[in-house]
Amino acid sequence: MNKKIIVLLVFILSALSIMAISVWGSLPESNDRPSVVSITIPDFDLKNSDGDKIKSVVDTITEDDYIYEIAFTVGPINADSKIKASTNQSGVTARVDDMKSVVYVIFEIDKIGTTVTVTIWDKNTQIKDEITLMFLPPSEIIIDDPDIF
Amino acid sequence: MFRRLFILTMIQLSSKMKLKITNQKKFIANLALRLLGLIVITVVMIFMLYFFNNVLYIPVNVYFIIFVLFVTQLTSIIACTTGLMVDLYASKDNAILLSFPAKHDEVFTSKLLVFYINEFLKNLSFLVPLLIAFGVISNLPLTFYLNILTMIFILPLLPVLLAAIISIPIMYIRQFLQTRNVVTLVLLIIFGVFVFLGLTGLLDEIPTPIRIVALYNKFVTSLTVFMQSSAKYALIYANIGRLLFGINVLSNYGIVFGVLFVLIALVVLISRPLFFNLASHTSEYAVTKKHKGTNKVSKNLFWTFFKKEFTISIRSSNEMLSNYVLLILFPFVVYVLNYIYIGIDRSTFGTKLVIAFDIMISLLLVTASNTASATAISVEGAEFVLLKTAPSDTKKMAWAKVAFNMIASTFIILLIFVLFQLSLPQFSPTDIWLMFAVVVFVNSGHILWSFQIDLLNPKLSDYAATASLTNNENVSKSIVIGLVLSIIFGGISAFLLIENYATGWLRIILLAFAFLVIRFYLFSNFLKVYFREIEF
Q1: Which of A3, A9, A87, A90 would you mutate first to test chain B, the one with the most B CBs within 10 A?
Q2: Which of B60, B83, B321, B445 would be B516's cystine partner, CB 3.0–4.6 Å?
């Protein structure tokens, strides 16, 4: 037994104590929170006639900067939400940070340049919003081309 | 030249690992076992990567590999730097090696080769299985495995060469700080304040009331983003990661070999001349006494020994720091944990659990810091015999050591609890100071117990021969007893507080005080009987 093991034990015990207190020592969460009414991605460049949002990431996503942040808002603010995110491309991963209301989209090197649609939805109500990230300047994007979605 | 280099390297390696093949069959069996071990590690790695990818949803891709490469190599650089600081510039074998019929350049190179071989073996047992596992689960082409083959030899070179350069300024900084305790203390405080501010910034990001599932999700997302974005800062390791995956292979190989060339040039131009300079001078004669010692007659033996302990602790502040290193960690652990505890919407039952866990974790960290007491007599080494021949009651030395350890430990704990109250004003001050009382009583009892362990089985001759406390069994015993005490007092606190909060506190404090009284009684009796029995 040495001090390194004690440090490890302290970390394990700390994690266990947090779990124990949150399971047995916390008050039940109130069920009077309203359901999600809307999820909105406010930052986009173009919108087609069907309401699909498009964002140009041609100079934003590069080999050295391959993580894109999509901010979203959930209405009402105190809604009981379970936010999830997904992409339509393998090799492009989406991770949600509920606390910051941000979705991180991580591009693998060989996927940089590929058009990706990111969907953000609430698991409880299935309400969703989508955005398509394209590697073209906004002026070259044909918004009503059905092949891009 | 190569033969001399080979002999020098083997001489140094033989003191670190078993090289002689006495039985060929046994050697082959050993080799087969090692190969089997590597296969098992690779299989475990495959499952681990699958778990990361499919359970934690952390993408296992090129950035993940760059992150793993970066972290493992950073650890290697740190380990090599600390190792080379001793082995290259301050090793006792320098005098012997330099007296051999070999060129000084060869001695220097052989020292680096020993570290290179160590790194090579470490990589072979961890990094290579990981990369193979990654290739298997990602179904990568043959070129990936061919690139691994070249990296097996290139990767260990980088930490060794980097460490040979980095160790120079670090060694100078260490030498500068070794003689300036106040500067070390001020730097430590500044470092502590920065860590505290960093922790506060991180904790402020967590919205209250804390929902544990959301906190877990936040943690995994942050970890994923951190791992995936670290490739930006991984420098040469980002190039290595990319070339492994067949991205710009030639240009990345060019960068890697370019960096290696620059590092070798720096080692030859800076590190090599310094090695000769330091290896041929010892610091023994560099000390010049500025003050003249005068003998003073002291009428109080206890006070004399107490002052001696105080002087030793100031002169060897590094040793004191290593003894109380867990107490430095204590305020940070307590702050982070209680910030999270307070953030959870707790029931009254939850509040009682918080106190019980606080007592348990505090005692765990505090009692593990009493290693100085568990080696108090052992560290006297060969001098203990001389001390015992003094014509006075030398038992008082033991009481002086106990008193000094108790005062130092209690003072640090007091500071930590003051910080606790100041940083978490939402926490009930009554509970904080009642906890302080329990921790101090149990810790003082544990100091007496640890001292008693060393009193009954001092390792005087071991310490006199090695001047090292590594693997000291008295230290292990003291830590185990501290662990058991922490669990017992944490459990009893939970039980008594849940049963009746007000009387529970009273009973916990009485129990802790009773423990202290019993340990005091036992210690004083053991001291009376066994102190005179201690022999070298």
Answers
A1: A3
A2: B445
